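To: structure desk
From: M.T.
Subject: fold request, one chain
Message: Could you run this one when you get a chance? Sequence is below, nothing fancy, just the single chain.
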Amino acid sequence: MLRKLTVGLRRTLVVSTMKLLTPKLKIEVTNFLEHVHRVPRPFTLMLKKHFGDKPLVGAEIGFGFGENSTSLLNELNIKKLYCVDPFILKSYYEGKNLVSNYTDESKSRYKQLKEDIRIQFVHFASDEGFSKLPEDLDFIYIDGNHEPDFVLRDLNKAFNHIRKGSFVGGHDFIRGAENQIIKAVFEFSVEIGQSPTIKMPDFWFKKN
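Reply: Done. Structure tokens follow.
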């Protein structure tokens, strides 16, 4: 039964429970959730500092609730943003957990972004979605399936779709102990011989 609850409802239940148990713990949980989902994210701010007002072509793997896609468009001089996600406004399983990105807020964002000529939605899973992307992107941000095998696969594919001097990064590094994102990131780090830059809750690599 609990597995069928949406992410948003589960978060609400957690915060409500903490509020009943202790005000201090409730505040800590609330601040943690706000930190993870706050925009603009560290990766976006890094791109803004590095590229300035340069027109950028990039991709985001995983639309979620659309906050980060909107933030990328607002914060950067985006020429084209590819958004790869087969589950926009749909439910999907991540491991044994059923996740839903369908909310009035995400529906509204999707409707607005569909009308933005700078964004192109790619309604495929990332393994096939990468084949729809150019191979000289300025950045790719990964926030799709959090299972370690998928994260590692997405990182490898992403590195082949950016030009030298560009960046591959991702979200939810702070949740790595739960979802093994940390394991995948450092395994990729060993493969390419480069340490990641980490600024919670994001991480990134530069292609030299």
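Reply (cont.): The chain is about 45% helix and 25% strand. Let me know if you need anything else for the meeting.
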